[in-house]
Amino acid sequence: MMSKGKKTELKTTNKKRDNLAWLMSGLFGILSGMFLVFGYQLEKFDHIDLSDRNSMLVMLAMMIVLAVDTKHVWNNYNARNRGQKFLGLIDLTKYALNPSEEKTHEDSKSFYVTWGTLVILNFPVLLAEFPGFFVYDAQDELNEVLTRSFSTHHPLLHVLLLGGIIAFVHKLSGSWNAGIFTYLFFQMLVITAIFAYVLCYMQKCGIGNKRKIAYTLYYGLFPTIVMFTLCSSKDGLFSALLLLLTVYLIQLLKNTEDFIKDRRKVIAFIITATLMPCFRHNGFYSYLVFVPFVLAYFIKKLNKTLTALLILPVFFYLVISNILGCISSEGTHHQEMLTVPIMQLARVYTYEKDSMTQEEINTLTSYIPEENLSLYTPRVSDMVKVGFNNELYEKDSASFYKLWADNLIKHPMTYVNAWLLTSYGFWYPAANINVYKGNSVFTFTYDESSYFGYEVELPGERHSFIPVVDRLYRYLSIGSFFEDAPVISLVMLPGFAMLLFLFVLLYRLSVKNIQGVLPFLPMVLTYLTVLLGPTYLPRYVVYLWMCLPLIRISGANLIKNTMYDNI
What we know:
The chain has 567 residues and is mostly helical. The chain has helices at residues 4-45, 53-81, 92-97, 108-128, 138-147, 156-173, 176-204, 209-221, 223-229, 234-254, 256-261, 263-279, 282-297, 304-325, 339-351, 358-367, 370-373, 382-385, 390-395, 397-410, 412-421, 467-478, 481-484, 494-510, 521-530, 542-547. Helix 7 packs antiparallel against helix 8, helix 12 packs antiparallel against helix 13 and helix 13 packs antiparallel against helix 25 (521-530). The longest helix is centred in the first third of the chain and has 42 residues, at 4-45. The two termini are 21 Å apart. The relative contact order is 0.14.
């Protein structure tokens, strides 16, 4: 029988945990309420209106309702884990948060069967879009290889890989389409191999054959994933490597000693963590920030092997970057890091020009030509930042920052709106992804949607072998799908996927399950970097959809039976 002191201690502990759960559910309610109301305002009015009393009251009500409902659902999750009857609407713990123990044997046959299945699922789309989706700066990257004129604007490893394969095959066959197809077929093999590894690991964690089939179909048929598996942009490979890194982190945190004893996994982890940022520079910053958190988590069991495992990728990446940087013949494109301040000043110039002194206007136009400022559109920065004077910035960056700071004081809400308008599509679940509306590219003009680039840039040329599939992907990419099916299409929008992760990760924090959160930290940090990017497009956050199945196997050690006895 429990003593009075023990009961008091348990009651105090449960109260603290309940307060933490309220804090996390409250945070979810506040954030999701802001995302929904502010996102709606930005979508409809191109600005946030804090003076709209009705909108602010609606937002407050949504925050309270979402916070309370979230806490109620989480209580039911906890009750289920104690063996009590589940009272919630959707049992996410069954499908996402309560895995069985990992099995010890590896099944190479299962890997190859899964890999082959994924290739078979993707190949018809590749034939339908032959030679594949050659888009998003693909022509520029190929030209860098052909002209031997390299810059740091695009990750050089991707430039050399894409351009090298295409140029080599073209030299042998005389066909640009053959080169593009070969590269994209190679990329498809790499990405689907990573998917197959993930699926086999999930199976060893106990998802069962039926769910493995379902997840295989997800990786092989979900349009957003297929688009970037077969797209020449660096985003597909980067996201797949981030997915693989997340899987390794799950294994590392789940059984640290066994992981660091396995030489193959140690080497694979270092290679993955090194290559991942080579395909997107923001991956390096996210991993760099992640390292102190994971070192702190392992502080009591740190040894030379574990420390080297986590830190060596940083060293190797810097070495590779410096080596590749030696072949660059162009200067640094500072505008890529200055997208937000550039758009903030451009918005002030466009809407608040009368408040600027002539000296300020002269300073601004010396950095950004007037012809570029006149092309300001709220949701994409490409046409404004392309004219940025990098040489002047390198000589006198202080003047730029002084101009920015002076106008921040005068127009704080203009700055807020300028930033949010290029990023709200990442967190507003119903955002209209049509940032390029009216822009003409090689083979079409964006009109109804700019969800995905779809086309084949020169020197490639599309020759579809399965026109009906081609028409489907055109409809999903640049057609009216998101207008025709506003509810179904939510699953293909970044904001919806982000809210799913936010719900699950905050729940894990509410039960102090750091082990279930830490593997996703590189992904979360990478996501935060894109909020400072040039626009909101699915290509920048493909990893959200790729990593989504992993919440099924990463929630170990969630709840002890006595954890919430008094809730």
